[in-house]
Design a protein that fits this description.
Elements (H helix, E strand, L loop, with lengths): L3 E4 L23 E3 L4 H9 L4 E3 L4 H8 L5 E5 L5 H13 L4 E5 L6 H4 L4 E2 L5 H5 L4 E3 L10 E5 L5 E8 L2 E2 L10 H4 L4 E2 L2 H13 L4 E4 L8 H13 L3 E6 L1 H13 L2 E9 L3 H6 L6 H10 L8 E6 L6 H12 L5 E6 L7 H9 L24 H15 L2 H18 L3 H15 L17 E3 L15
Parallel strand pairs: 1-3, 1-4, 4-5, 5-6, 9-12, 12-13, 13-14, 14-15, 15-16
Antiparallel strand pairs: 2-8, 7-17, 8-9, 10-11
Helix pairs in contact: 7-8, 9-11, 12-14
The structure holds cobalamin and iron/sulfur cluster.
Length: 461
């Protein structure tokens, strides 16, 4: 059997992001670092023959390579490419015969020229075929993935389970890589989602962060998932489009949704039309009003730096969003990503001029904005982050909404089940430990006997 190792980039400051501290720049800071690689955990759960490393130290990676591998694969994001190239060079020097690259940062010339094979999309079957089988399209299994929120002095506060239930998105916003990269949309097996939720529940986990890009895009699938979340008494976070949230607000609230996030992007309809985000400002306002319910901690994502907006228009836009009163706002700088419509139009009209790939992380201006300079944009982002959010507000609103509101409603058991239990169990939870389930029956089929499963034709959204 072939020896296959897949890895993320090696770990160094700023490689793994703190989901909470990223947006709050003042003291005292809370944090939630995601140390798992959802992509590699999914591949390993479904193709157990491979070995994976998640954000290893450079030394550990080098030691591992020396064990001798037939194929070494890298999970690449754009802003990690310089480090990935360093790792590829080392693997070549150690005589690795075949090098692969996958994930959103892989299909670019810098990587294509350095490796033997670039895989786009979900990659399950390309990887399974190494071992002579394919995975049945409706049998993609969910792995275990957790992360932990720490509060002041890094005290462990709660661990949450990560859930990712459907690949791809039916919309086509022109700045977004998702519809370009994942062409074949499909859902994760419900049975395996039930299994992982049961596992989280047994571990004392009562909070779930759903990483789906557009939660609820397939009504039937999501109805089942929200029922499962309610069955295990989970409090959950999900991000979606405003009209999907509006259509499901009451039902999902009853089923435990407490941290909904929407991509507002811009508070200007002309700009929204320009980026093909078909969304009405009136709906965002309606959502801001209707979703203000006990226990709800809502977040909104926005983008600064659209070419049609100058400094003052950007600030005005930010204040229009702030006025809606979401509990946390997250702003990023408009960054063209390869393969998207926006990449082409910005390259042609203005020029993408940043040679340092580390900066393609939505925190830097990598192209020539017509009226705002690179330094000025950075300063604007920092100012807006502190305008939007403060640690005190985060603690006050976070604890107030998630804890006090429930206790006020007479749910004293909430304190026992969702606070005490969470603090205790998070201190026994190791996010970096890899846990996998045995594959379910009917999970795979020999490669020769089926059609290769692209495009997925079962569970098509
Ligand atoms: C959840 C998420 C996060 C989470 C968790 C990230 C993490 N550490 O895992 C949080 C909120 C922390 C986050 C933060 C950021 N994110 Co983010 N995030 C996502 C999101 C929405 C889903 C990723 C995910 O979990 N997918 C589920 C897994 C199962 O799928 P997958 O990762 O694609 O892996 C599959 C395939 O790609 C493939 N594959 C993966 N690796 C490999 C390797 C090999 C060898 C092979 C063959 C195949 C393969 O197989 C996997 C199974 O099918 C994506 C958008 C998207 N559509 O993917 C953006 C995305 C990954 N994020 C992005 C960015 C820019 C960021 C930030 C820099 C933004 C910021 N300014 O804060 C930070 C930094 C991230 C970091 N350093 O950790 C970009 C990356 C762009 C790029 N081209 O590199 C994306 C693609 C969104 C976008 N286009 O803007 N993010
Ligand atoms: S921004 Fe959201 S809704 Fe638009 S294409 Fe991307 S994932 Fe889909």
């Amino acid at each position: 059997m072939k020896k296959v190792l897949f890895t993320t980039v090696y770990n160094k400051p700023n490689v793994v992001t703190d989901m909470v501290a990223e947006h709050v720049k003042t003291f005292p800071r809370a944090g939630a670092v995601v140390r798992v690689s959802p992509g590699l955990r999914f591949l390993k759960q479904n193709v157990p023959e491979i070995e994976i490393m998640e954000y290893p130290s450079l030394e550990d990676f080098k030691e591992k390579i020396k064990e001798g591998w037939d194929i070494v694969g890298f999970s690449v994001y754009l802003y990690q490419i310089p480090e990935i190239l360093e790792m590829i060079q080392y693997a070549r020097e150690q005589g690795v015969k075949e090098i692969w690259a996958g994930n959103y940062g892989a299909p670019v010339p810098a990587i294509e020229n350095a490796v033997d094979r670039v895989i786009t999309g979900s990659a399950f079957n390309e990887v399974a075929e190494i071992f002579g089988y394919t995975i049945l399209p409706d049998r993609i299994e969910h792995p275990v993935m957790t992360a932990t929120v720490t509060a002041i002095w890094k005290i462990r506060f709660l661990s949450f389970g990560i859930l990712y239930t459907s690949f791809g998105c039916p919309y086509k916003c022109n700045f977004c890589q998702t519809p370009v990269f994942i062409k074949d949309r499909f859902t994760v097996s419900l049975e395996s989602i039930d299994r992982v939720l049961q596992y989280y529940h047994q571990k004392g986990i009562r909070y779930i962060a759903i990483f789906d890009e557009t939660f609820g895009a397939n009504a039937a699938h999501y109805d089942e998932i929200t029922k499962l979340l309610a069955k295990y008494g989970m409090i959950w976070a999900a991000q979606s489009r405003v009209e999907i949230f509006l259509a499901n607000l009451d039902k999902w609230y009853e089923r435990g949704m407490r941290l909904p996030g929407i991509g507002v992007e811009f508070m200007d309809e002309a700009v929204l039309r320009d980026v093909n985000k078909k969304q009405k400002i009136a709906n965002i306002k309606k959502w801001a009003e209707l979703s203000r319910k006990p226990g709800m901690f809502r977040y909104a994502f926005s983008i600064i730096g659209h070419p049609n907006m100058n400094r003052q228009q950007t600030i005005d836009d930010a204040y229009r969003l702030k006025a809606l009163g979401f509990e946390i706002n997250r702003a990023s700088i408009l960054t063209p990503f390869p393969g998207t419509g926006q990449w082409k139009s910005i390259e042609q009209e203005f020029g993408i001029d940043e040679p340092d790939l580390h900066k393609y992380d939505s925190r830097n201006l990598v192209w020539k904005h017509p009226t705002i300079g690179k330094e000025e944009m950075l300063e604007l982002l920092q100012t807006l982050k502190t305008t939007y959010n403060s640690s005190i507000k985060l603690y006050r609103e976070g604890l107030g909404r998630l804890v006090y509101d429930e206790i006020k409603r007479g749910k004293w058991w909430f304190f026992r089940n969702y606070i005490l239990r969470s603090i205790i169990s998070s201190n026994f939870n190791n996010d970096t430990e890899q846990v996998y389930f045995p594959n379910m029956e009917g999970h795979k089929t020999p490669a020769m006997t089926t059609n290769i499963i692209t495009p997925y034709n079962v569970h098509h959204l």
